[in-house]
Design goal:
By secondary structure, this protein is mainly alpha-helical. It contains nine helices and four strands, in the order αααββααααβααβ. The radius of gyration is 20 Å and the shape is globular.
Length: 280
């Protein structure tokens, strides 16, 4: 089931007011209505400009369990599009960065901090934090009680730093220039960072969300795919990898579906698989 993010719409553009340790109050940020944060499906409304404030942090850390790339996109596509409407960053770029930086939502840093963009503490950060080995051992990373706050912080991070300002001269659907520009601005040290973002965007058609916002000022929903469930009987030479390639699902998903703790298979073993049903 798709996991939707429940947000509260209020008039005007308010910034995030997180009640984490060592965080101080800022009267310019306004007051946000306290609400429970849920991953369940729910109807969400926003003001006519698409600018919204996030619900006030309840102070409870919510651990997210993401099983696949598809589930990640279903969970965060909506908020990425609203961030695009509010801040001008292509939703496809935000989603691709989230996927890549968070290890498809399953990386150690993302799981323990809900930090989906690998944003470090930096000078002036007063929110919660945790330590994680990255370029150096024990670096300080921002920590959020819900990933939606990570998405908002990502938007504010890019729009508040001068070195990224030239990106906003690019078209909001020109994800290729944005991907290359992020590397040029020093967002990542990986020389292949742009190519990785572009690959994710094109493989999973993330650019459709940019088009929906840009052309129709609308939010595109992610239609859940329909699957047919089957049983595969292991033959000589079969591996989890070869089975995953045959049925177009990941090795991790195969192991999760079959409660496997290793990659070892036995001839005659029955493996639950699923294949996507194509629309006629």
């Amino acid at each position: 089931m798709m996991k939707r993010l429940v947000l509260i719409a209020i008039i005007g553009t308010l910034l995030l007011g997180c009640k984490a340790k060592k965080r101080t109050a800022d009267s310019t940020r306004g007051r946000l209505e306290t609400t429970a944060i849920s991953k369940k499906n729910a109807h969400t409304t926003y003001d006519t400009k698409g600018l919204y404030a996030l619900p006030e942090d309840t102070g409870r850390f919510e651990r997210f369990s993401i099983g696949s790339v598809e589930e990640y996109i279903q969970t965060f596509a909506e908020i990425a599009q609203y961030e695009m409407k509010a801040y001008g960053i292509p939703a496809s770029i935000t989603l691709a960065q989230g996927l890549l930086e968070s290890g498809l939502g399953k990386g150690e840093l993302a799981v323990k901090t809900n930090n989906h963009f690998g944003i470090k503490c930096h000078t002036g950060w007063q929110g919660d934090y945790d330590y994680h080995d990255d370029d150096e051992k024990g670096e300080c990373f921002r920590k959020y009680n819900h990933p939606m706050y990570s998405y908002r912080d990502h938007s504010e991070f890019l729009t508040s730093r001068a070195r990224y300002s030239f990106l906003f001269d690019y078209g909001r659907t020109d994800y290729k220039r944005w991907a290359k520009g992020l590397r040029q601005a020093g967002y990542a040290t990986d020389k292949r960072y742009p190519q990785k973002l572009i690959y994710l965007i094109e493989k999973h058609r993330l650019h459709q969300f940019d088009t929906a916002v840009q052309q129709n000022n609308a939010i595109a929903s992610v239609e859940p795919k329909a699957y047919e469930h089957k049983v595969h009987v292991v033959q000589k030479g079969d591996t989890l990898y070869s089975i995953s390639r045959r049925y177009f699902i990941s090795v991790d998903e195969l192991k999760r579906m079959n409660n496997l703790n290793s990659n070892d298979l036995a001839i005659g073993q029955r493996i639950a698989v699923k294949t996507e049903l194509t629309k006629k």
